[in-house]
Amino acid sequence: MTPRRHAIKTAALMLAGLSPWSSSFAATEAAFYPAVKPRRLVFPRDHGAHPAYRTEWWYLTGWLGQGPSAIGFQLTFFRSRTQHAVDNPSRLAPTQLLFAHAAMSVAKQDVFLHANRAGRLSGTALRAETADTDLQFEDWHLRRVQRAAAEVYEGHFSGEGFALSFEASTQQAVILRGQEGWSQKGPEALQASHYYSRAPLRVNAQMQLGQQSQKLEGKAWLDHEWSSQLLMPGAVGWDWLGINLLDGGTLMAFQIRNQKSEPLYAHVDARDREGLSTQAWNGLTWHARGSWRSKALIDYPIPMDLVVGGQSFRLVPLMLAQEVDARASTGGFYWEGAVSLMQADRLLGHGYLELTGYGAPLRI
Predict the structure, then answer these.
(1) CA angle 191, 194, 196 (to 5 degrees)
(2) Is 233 domain-assigned?
(3) Burial of 26 by CB count in 10 Å (0-12 exposed, 13-18 middle, 19+ buried)?
(4) Is residue 40 situated within a structural domain?
(5) What is the pLDDT of residues 214-230, one digit of tens each?
């Protein structure tokens, strides 16, 4: 991040009454944001932004190539509504902030490359359209287009020494999480989000590493989620998993944790290749099989096992060092990396694992 952008970002957060280290959600703030209530999601409108809600993200992760030459990538746009009134006449009172994270995990070189950005929504260079997925942060973008029978997500991001342009396409229906897209994150109705996924996505990408350019193919996963409460009381973070299975199915699971790393709320959603729900992963539990200490001196529970029905499955990271330093944007550190799902020596699929709230409670 350039000094200018960092200064703008810091000023915007201060004016918004926020900081990367501010409280994630105070009870007194609840009335300012609308509650997330069960309703039928309507597309393409709900592919777009929902400015009234506190927090929203579009999160696209993928695997490119195979074996020791595999590359993981992620591109995430976050929209955040401040508590400034929409009719506030001051040009220095931002009502909407936009953050963006991007990363690449290059297994062959054992290198993790990432970049992040922050600023206020301007409607031009920084925008999040409401009619459909159409996000832009200067030269970074993610947008949805319709091509014949396929839906295509076009994206681009770049950082120091790397860049990726991609098209991720699907002919499958939207996967609605929870109750028709109303996904609980705790026992109370307020602790919910609207949440859907697009998976699996077929990816064609043009990668730039240094002076070298390469075309790659693979699979990806998109999550779009918006809510008015980030975490339930007592929670410090979450573990989230999204796996594209080799048989064409998908596995999504998350658990919300407290300070002792005990699960407060958990959910699993497994689908077959037709997108239909399956009970195969019900009862899934998470177990740390090791611990890895990052450069930020944070201990993450990786590698990790999943246990269900007396069977154990391993989550094997493409590489251990996949920690994102987001202090210049959303704040703090988190581990977000490419993983393989294994049972004994059998490969079941590839995807991404996200671990938040381990060094300190999650703040956005």
Answers:
(1) 130
(2) yes
(3) exposed
(4) no
(5) 999 999 999 999 999 87
